[in-house]
Design a protein that fits this description.
single chain; alpha/beta; Rossmann fold; 7-stranded mixed β-sheet; 14 helices; 7 strands
């Protein structure tokens, strides 16, 4: 396999200035920068085309596609990722969102004191001031985020502010934007003598809404699915003009475990989520998974159109080469280009573990394939 070093336009300061603030609704592990899909969308598609991300994560590709007047389709089995993708595929107006928050606030002020928090787990109660927790439980019960795009946006904003280390977050001060284990948090609270801050969810939501709705809304609407990537049956044969995605790597991230607090808000159990997501140390199993995935992606992709795979090299060196030789090439894909994208140490989420961070991705290799 030949390697080509690109100028990586999506890393330039000029590219970052184009990032829509709606991308930052909620952080997400192993997310790529908005400039990356934006670069390939502009290069390999035209307005009105359909762009698919089958491992959509926080919905970056979908939002960029819709902003660029394409139809963005996202799919992810992680319910948190599905929420974020669904939200960005069909964003409501700021006016509608603010009206919904105000209506919910009036209802809470009437009935909120009746909400019982005694039966919540100790792991949750250690994070939030009682009144803040009552508000969160109220939102959990009231938001129909699966069906209403306004409620989806509010739920996505809450997952983005539910824990962190400043006054703009709802929890005790936490060192990371992903969820450390309950025992780690409990020790962190004790060692730092932390007190649960009194936060008003309604007030912070309105602040976040102002901050995120600074830029233009997308010109197109998209679609979001919560399906097995090997069978995204709503997407028709040869209907997609471009695929941009980053498939899971070999045993690196437990998306459920690292988002257990956000998943609590969505009424999901982290262990159950991880049980549904692909996670293996076996290279044979990984290659079979990727072969089956690429077979499905070939089904939906139009002839001569491009598939962009962002693959991180972790414990297995040249993982991208294995995917090409064992999975993509046997299916008849053509390799157009490979781009090396070295990840700076200070950009990695795993840097918090210092010397214990293990086999975190040091380089992303981007395969540009053609059907």
């Amino acid at each position: 396999m030949e390697f080509q070093i690109s100028q990586l336009e999506w890393k330039s300061k000029e590219s970052k200035k184009l990032d829509n603030k709606l991308h930052a609704l909620c952080s997400y592990m192993a997310m790529f920068p908005p400039g990356l899909p934006r670069y390939f969308i502009k290069k390999y598609s035209v307005e009105g085309d359909t762009v698919l991300d089958p491992f959509s994560g926080r919905g970056t590709t979908v939002l960029e596609s819709c902003l660029l007047n394409r139809i963005g389709i996202g799919n992810d089995r992680n319910p948190l990722a599905y929420l974020l993708t669904k939200t960005k595929s069909n964003l409501p107006s700021k006016k509608r969102v603010l009206s919904r928050i105000n209506d919910l606030e009036k209802k809470y002020n009437q009935f909120g004191m009746n909400i019982n928090i005694r039966h919540e787990s100790r792991n949750i109660k250690m994070l939030f001031y009682p009144e803040t927790l009552r508000q969160l439980i109220f939102f959990k019960k009231e938001l129909d985020w699966n069906k209403k795009n306004v409620d989806s946006l509010i739920a996505a904003m809450i997952t983005g502010i539910i824990h962190g280390n400043s006054e703009n977050y709802l929890s005790i001060s936490m060192p990371n934007t992903f969820s450390m284990s309950p025992n780690y948090i409990r020790k962190f609270v004790k060692d730092n003598n932390l007190q649960r801050p009194k936060r008003n969810v309604f007030l912070i939501l309105k602040t976040v809404l102002d901050r995120r709705y600074k830029d233009n809304l997308p010109t197109k609407k998209g679609e979001a699915y919560n399906l097995d990537v090997k069978n995204i049956y709503p997407v028709k044969d040869s209907s997609v003009d471009l695929i941009i995605t980053s498939p899971p790597y070999t045993k690196v991230i437990r998306y459920g475990q690292f988002n257990w607090i956000r998943l609590w808000f969505l009424d999901k159990i982290a262990k159950d989520v991880d049980g549904k997501l692909f996670f293996t140390q076996s290279m044979d199993r990984y290659c079979q998974f990727m072969f089956d995935t690429l077979k499905e992606l070939k089904r939906v992709l139009k002839p001569t159109k491009k598939l962009i795979l962002v693959i991180g090299d972790v414990k297995e060196k040249n993982l991208s080469e294995k995917v090409w030789l064992n999975c993509a090439k046997p299916l008849g894909f053509k390799l157009i280009e490979e781009i090396d994208d070295v990840i700076e140490d200070d950009k990695k989420v795993s840097k918090i573990w210092g010397e214990k961070r293990g086999n975190a991705t040091k380089i992303d290799r981007i395969l540009v394939l053609e059907k």
